[in-house]
Design a protein that fits this description.
The protein has 256 residues and is an alpha+beta fold. Helix content is 31%, strand content 28%. It has 7 helices and 12 strands. Helix 5 runs antiparallel to helix 7 and helix 6 packs across helix 7. The longest helix has 20 residues. The protein starts with a strand and ends with a strand.
Length: 256
């Protein structure tokens, strides 16, 4: 489905320069009309009421009706985008976070959007994403370590790119196990939640921190994960992710 602004001069004043835009969602509003969601030239989400636009292409074959995501009101959304950003009830379509921007890229690629340099540099800048993870771990590791206060044993996280699994030489009592890649997201979330926690009274904070760390790591991966592994040594407990022939290690290690 595509839309065109009726008032082209007003559209130009808001830097909407294209003749038409692809609608990614059609939402019933409380006034009895519809609101259309689309992405502008910077691939930022925007909404417009149906009174301000005309339909130039009414093909909705790539959209699915999901009223459950719009509190029971009529709601159609592009199926690919919905799946990529894992749209849930009450969530808005957006590219504002690094995770959302990264996951939405497959949609933009599929529909041949022109990708601005600012967006491409953000989504494909691995150093930027790795620095976000490192900065987050610098803050969250002391939070995790508080439960070991007064002792000689501590646990922390680190994240890095490392050797291919085939290049690792196992020492005595080391182990490598390939995991089910279909369960990648759930297994990674469970791995993080198992170790990223403080006291029981801070469960809600720990859950939020776990969700953030998962999103920062998952944002690295634009395309499908190839394989995942559990790699353990005496000090290290690694969740290893293979993506585009690179290997990423989330290591939960102990020291003291």
């Amino acid at each position: 489905m595509k839309i065109r602004f009726k008032n082209k001069e007003m559209a130009l004043k808001t830097n909407l320069l294209q003749d038409e835009y692809r609608a990614v969602a059609k939402e019933a509003d409380l006034g009895g009309g519809y609101t259309y969601v689309f992405f502008n030239e910077n691939l930022q989400e925007m909404s417009v009421q149906d009174t301000h636009v005309e339909i130039t292409d009414d093909d909705m074959s790539d959209m699915v009706q999901r009223n459950d995501l719009w509190y029971g009101r009529e709601f159609y959304v592009n199926e690919l985008l919905m799946n990529q950003i894992e749209l849930k009830q009450g969530h808005i379509i957006s590219t504002r976070t690094v995770w959302l921007a990264s996951k939405a890229f497959r949609y933009f690629e599929e529909y041949n959007y022109e990708i601005p340099d600012t967006y491409r540099d953000r989504v494909f800048n691995e150093n930027y994403k790795m620095n976000l993870i490192e900065g987050f771990l610098m803050a969250v590791n002391p939070y995790m370590e508080r439960k070991f206060a007064g002792g000689n044993y501590f646990e922390s996280f680190e994240f890095y790119k490392g050797k291919a699994i085939s290049e690792i030489e196992l020492e005595i009592n080391d182990s490598i196990e390939e995991l089910n890649v279909i369960e990648y997201k759930q297994l990674l979330k469970s791995f993080i939640e198992r170790y990223l926690h403080d006291t029981e009274g801070n469960t809600e904070n720990s859950k939020a921190f776990s969700n953030t760390l998962f999103a920062l790591i998952d944002a690295l991966f634009i395309y499908d994960i190839t394989r995942i592994f559990s790699y353990k040594t005496f000090y290290d407990n690694c969740f290893v992710i293979e993506h585009q022939n690179e290997y990423y290690y989330l290591n939960q290690f102990w020291w003291g």
